[in-house]
Amino acid sequence: MGKKMTVILEALMLLFFMGGGEAVEIYKDPSQLIHRRIKDLMGKMSLAEKIGQMTQLDRTAATPEIMKEFSIGSLLSGGGSVPRLQATPEEWIEMVNGFQNGSLSSRLGIPMIYGIDAVHGHNNVYKATIFPHNVGLGATRDPKLVERIGAATALEVRATGINYAFAPCIAVCRDPRWGRCYESYSEDPRIVIAMTTLITGLQGHNPINSMPFVGGKNKVAACAKHFVGDGGTKGGVNENNTVIDWHGLRNIHMPAYYHSIIKGVSTVMVSYSSWNGNKMHANRRLITGSLKNYLKFKGFVISDWQGIDRITSPPHANYTYSVHAGIHAGIDMIMVPFNHTEFIDTLTKLVESKVIPMRRINDAVRRILRVKFLMGLFENPLADDTFVDHLGSQAHRDLAREAVRKSMVLLKNGETADPPLLPLPKKAGRILVAGTHADNLGYQCGGWTITWQGLAGNNLTQGTTILSAISSAVDPNIDLVYKENPDLEFVKTGNFSFAVVVVGEHPYAETDGDNSNLTIPEPGPATITNVCGGVKCVVVVVSGRPLLIQPYLRSIHALVAAWLPGSEGQGVTDVLFGDYGFTGKLPRTWFKTVDQLPMNFDDPHYDPLFPIGFGLTTSPAA
Question: Pick the catalytic residue: 510, 514, 568, 574?
């Protein structure tokens, strides 16, 4: 009996003690099953540490000391929130690791996760590759290409030490007046579903369906957003009310979430919008009932920026109510993003007064920790410079150029009785290039580029404008003339062989992009009228959505929808000058007048200027 007791005691000693007399921490042992690691860690956590894990702050509101003291679960860079203007990857890494070391020095050493809006490449970062916005990728109809873009984006995000991307946006935009329509792949949920391959690009291929998955140091956690119905708001007004029955919500706006969960998406972000008058950030039926229970989502649900504040009108009018409503609905992590003490104190009081049950807190923390363990954060919390050379690499720029040329949609190519204008000859007497968007990198990249709203000009980041691409594409002996807004007399007397006119929208994001008229901003219409009235012209429209083009269509000889192509303007000239043929197809309906809106492909009375799926093709030039 004494020998048996000795053996048992020795076994217990081996289980609980190791060299130096330190206790074995199951949650720190990568050989343990993840559910055991989660259980062990949660058993050691105080309420304060659990609520800290549910808190996400913007980097500007955080310090390493705050990370340590409050056990903050996550940080983010909002649009334009950077270590400094034109910061290098090494400076990003130093910043992220500084915050991470604060987290690791906390009592339990739980690493934080750092998120950023990498929505068309690593778009906040100087010299990153800027890929076409989602509307353009929808025009490619190429899910494998989108997956490759996801993989490239993951590498560029990791190049700056960041491990979490707030992408993809899987909204189904049903009204182009919405200021976020360019973030949507299509008005057709089937196209949006097909493009959820961005998730496997970002995270890797999931060996176990429906479980969150991040496949190594070269991958990042993804975020499907914005749950749910954000693309269906009345009048296309951002953050507005989506009026639709359950059948419509389930069949139009919900399917891409199911496919994202199957692919192992790690997180889901909630929409600012409402469904039939009920704020999504407070919608327990959809967040807990549909997303978590019915669709079996096992990752964590995150709010949008100050999302719970906007449950009330005006925002933040009753913060205690907002915190209760959001957490009760099933949101696990709150993008606060500034006043962490207010959120933490409010939620702590709600739990201590038993308004919010502890099981809800535990569900949230369990989900957050599950993602962190599956990411390998506990084993590899700190970033290094392994991936620095991938930021803006030539391979990624070549990939972006491929995406641009595949996204170009040819809407018109000469009149029926005339020979087609495209592809353009590389050898000609004189070529005129005109328009506000021909030599403006910021315009062709659009919103969510370096800053939240985007920028104008050519100094924001590295890339190639459409004008520069034309100059490189044509014969060096050609007389290439650029005049932004020429008058008719200049065009008629210029002896030009043809003209390329590049016009479109100015950069915008979210509510600032809501637009009830969808006209081409001036002087775009005047440029089209003057140039196309004096010489054969191809008009390239750079925009995040269809714009009012019908009044000018008769004078235009060839018309191309270029969407928001990003940093690689050569992709536009690849098809204009016939190195490749046009293959893109409209991802959404092109209207005749805004009075028709909303108008979608499945409407009973469908009378578009160009239907969804339309796109002329050309063959490469001989």
Answer: 510
The Cα 423–Cα 175 span in angstroms is 32
> Which tokens is 403 given?
């995406």
- DSSP secondary structure string for all residues of 444-465: HH-SSBSBSS---SS-SSS-B-
pLDDT one-digit tens code per residue, 63-77: 999 999 999 999 999
Distance CA 507, CA 394 (A): 26
**Of 547, 558, 560, 567, residue with least CA distance to 506:** 547
User: d(Cα 581, Cα 559) in Å, to the nearest integer?
Assistant: 15
Q: Supply the DSSP string of 264-313, one letter for each residue.
A: T--EEEEPSSEETTEEGGG-HIIIIIIIIIIS---SEEE--TTTTGGGSS
How far apart CA 551 and CA 545 sit, in angstroms, is: 17
Residue type, 275: W
Q: List, for residues 362-411, the tens digit of each pLDDT value.
A: 999 999 999 999 999 999 999 999 999 999 999 999 999 999 999 999 99
| Nearest CA among 542, 557, 559, 553 for reference residue 410 | 559
CB 373 within 8 A of CB 34: yes
- 404 Cβ contact partners less than 8 Å away, ≥ 6 residues apart: 132, 136, 562, 565, 566, 568, 569, 570, 571, 572, 574
Kind of pairing between the strands at 17-18 and 22-23: antiparallel
Neighbours of 268 (CB within 10 A): 27
- pTM value surpassing 0.85: yes
Closest CA to 228 of 164, 177, 292: 292
Measured CA to CA, the distance from residue 621 to residue 173 in angstroms comes to: 36
Closest CA to 424 of 569, 610, 560, 609: 560
Q: Decide if 517 contacts 547 (C-beta within 8 A).
A: no
User: Please, are residues 165 and 202 in contact by the beta-carbon 8 Å criterion?
Assistant: yes
* In contact, 385 and 313? CB cutoff 8 Å: no
What whole-number percentage of the chain has pLDDT above 90? 94
Residues 361/45, Cβ–Cβ less than 8 Å: no
Instruction: State how far the Cα of 306 lies from the Cα of 318, in Å rounded to an integer.
Output: 13
The helix or strand, by DSSP H or E, that contains position 537, with its residue range, turns out to be strand 537-542
510 in active site:
yes
CA distance 569 to 443: 11
Q: Is 239 a catalytic residue?
A: no
What order of strands is seen across the sheet that includes strand 267-270? Answer: 223-227, 267-270, 300-302
For residue 427, with 0-12 CB atoms within 10 Å meaning exposed, 13-18 middle and 19 or more buried, which class applies?
exposed
pLDDT confidence of residue 12 = 45
The Cβ-side half-sphere exposure at 298, using a 13 Å CA radius, reads 15
Quick one: how many helices (H) and strands (E) in the chain?
21, 19
The active-site residue, picked from 304, 309, 505, 568, is 304
Half-sphere exposure of 20 (CA within 13 A, CB side): 3
Q: Where are the alpha helices (DSSP H) in 47-142?
A: 47-53, 64-70, 89-104, 134-140
